[in-house]
Amino acid sequence: MEFLSSCASSSSSQRFAFFNVQHQNTLSSRATVKVLPWNFSVVGLGRSTRLSADGRERILGCNCGSNRVLLFRQSWRYHSCLASSFDLISLNYRYVFNRNIYQVNFRRIRSSLGKFRQRFSVKLARVMVCVMLVMSVSSTFGGTPSQALTEENLLFLEAWRTIDRAYIDKTFNGQSWFRYRENALRNEPMNTREETYTAIKKMLATLGDPFTRFLEPEKFKSLQSGTQGALTGVGLSIGYRTNVDGPAGLVVISAAPGGPAERAGITSGDVLLAIDDTTTESMGIYDAAERLQGPEGSSVQLTVQSGPSVKQLDLVREKVAINPVKSRICELPGSGDDSSKIGYIKLTSFTQKASGAVKEAIDYLRSNKVNAFVLDLRDNSGGLFPEGVEIAKIWLDKGVIVYICDSRGVRDIYDSDGSSSIAASEPLAVLVNKGTASASEILAGALKDNKRAILFGEPTYGKGKIQSVFKLSDGSGLAVTVARYETPAHIDIDKVGVIPDRPLPASFPKDGEGFCSCFEDAASACNVNRLQLFSR
């Protein structure tokens, strides 16, 4: 508010007093006095204007004579409601100025402003203390403080985070994954390592995915040794049934060549009904695999259905050395030239050294002047996904190998740029059957869809999910379904399999020696000539 008043004697040196009292929304106030020159007498009474945009209000008033210092009897009332952001404070001011008491009123203004600042500071401090208390209580009950987590809780959280980041289904089977974590930390007992393992298994069971599972340290080590090419057991690869017809149980995908199961006559497609008198009707494949493995020299009893017959077999566990690649040269009768030689490669699993072994086999066969290849993937139950991709690159010049997909579509593409190709031009035939699964299906699908090979046999097993293995800090691990895959032609083979181009004779042998005999003996029931094998 600005006040203008002429304050002068009868002398010509009149002065005009300018009083400025300013109130702003920042809850600060100041009063200033300026004395300005005034060259003529002013008679009259000013009136109040409306509150201006900058928060000031002007009142002009003068009544001056030659013998009077100041005649200012204008009363002015200023009412303002100043509200903080918390709606705590309301102030009323009444100022009356005249020639004798204006200095007293200024002192009252300053006193009122001082009290206002003091009261506002106290109220504001109380509000801030309340806010801090609310935030502290919210923090206490809104989450679990890190310093309160035990070592067992931290292991559980490590497993939870692994699933959160890697699992293919981001709806987590239609549940709130964060809410499950909080409920488990509050309600699940985790006082011992066994209780923590139980809590992790219970968590994974809510996903409804039999391929995502927990591995205790011993099982994790056993899985690693299996992918590295050595395993103690009976040499069986098993899986879930892909159709509802037939007896309940687990299906045999393949039997390791030369292993106890193969020597006992177990073949792909047989149904494993019981292990040591424990039915497999509701048994998981990993529980069954654990029961099949054991100390070298120990025995296990299997109940197996092969066709209509059911038989019980007593097998002795032994260390099954998994040699992933075997090769053989097949010479066709007649011409005697180099064009009659075919290189046969049997790939039984995708271990860590599988791609290197395939390259060595190709080099060996080429050194013996073969110019066509047969890649046998029958009863190959899979293994390491990266090895399947690397072996596909050996045979492909350029092209897509596999599409990796999640719930939102294609997430990644694996392809060949030709840099790893060493056998992209020779004729190639691939043999598959219902024991061909997982990584071997990726390889077969890539060679078929890129028109690199002709597929012979029967539809493959149909495992279109990809699992990755994650090691936890205590030596245990998780096998997690991280993606599904599609072939280069965007075919989802899960529970369907890769469909071959042509069938094989029912009596077609599964070993290299028997395979070559089908070429060498034109009168045999399995005879296939070169033209039939490599022409489309």
From TrEMBL:
* Cellular localization per UniProt: Plastid, Chloroplast thylakoid lumen
What's any GO biological process attached to this entry?
A: proteolysis
Q: Name one Pfam family in it.
A: PDZ_6
Which molecular function terms from Gene Ontology are attached?
serine-type endopeptidase activity
Q: Which InterPro entries match?
A: ClpP/crotonase-like_dom_sf, PDZ, PDZ_6, PDZ_sf, Peptidase_S41A, Tail-specific_protease
Would I find Transferase among this entry's keywords?
Answer: no
**Chief location of this protein?**
plastid
Q: Which SMART domains match?
A: PDZ (SM00228), TSPc (SM00245)
Asked if the keyword Hydrolase belongs to this entry, the reply reads yes
Q: Name one GO cellular component term.
A: chloroplast thylakoid lumen
Annotated EC: 3.4.21.102
Q: What range(s) does the PDZ domain occupy?
A: 220-293
Keywords, alphabetical: Hydrolase, Protease, Serine protease, Thylakoid
Reactions catalysed according to its record? The enzyme shows specific recognition of a C-terminal tripeptide, Xaa-Yaa-Zaa, in which Xaa is preferably Ala or Leu, Yaa is preferably Ala or Tyr, and Zaa is preferably Ala, but then cleaves at a variable distance from the C-terminus. A typical cleavage is -Ala-Ala-|-Arg-Ala-Ala-Lys-Glu-Asn-Tyr-Ala-Leu-Ala-Ala
Instruction: Tell me the protein family, please.
Output: Belongs to the peptidase S41A family.
Q: What does this protein do?
A: Protease involved in the C-terminal processing of the chloroplastic D1 protein of photosystem II. This proteolytic processing is necessary to allow the light-driven assembly of the tetranuclear manganese cluster, which is responsible for photosynthetic water oxidation.
Q: Which PANTHER family match?
A: CARBOXYL-TERMINAL-PROCESSING PEPTIDASE 2, CHLOROPLASTIC (PTHR32060:SF7), TAIL-SPECIFIC PROTEASE (PTHR32060)
Protein name, UniProt field: C-terminal processing peptidase
Q: What species is given as this protein's source?
A: Cucurbita moschata (Winter crookneck squash)
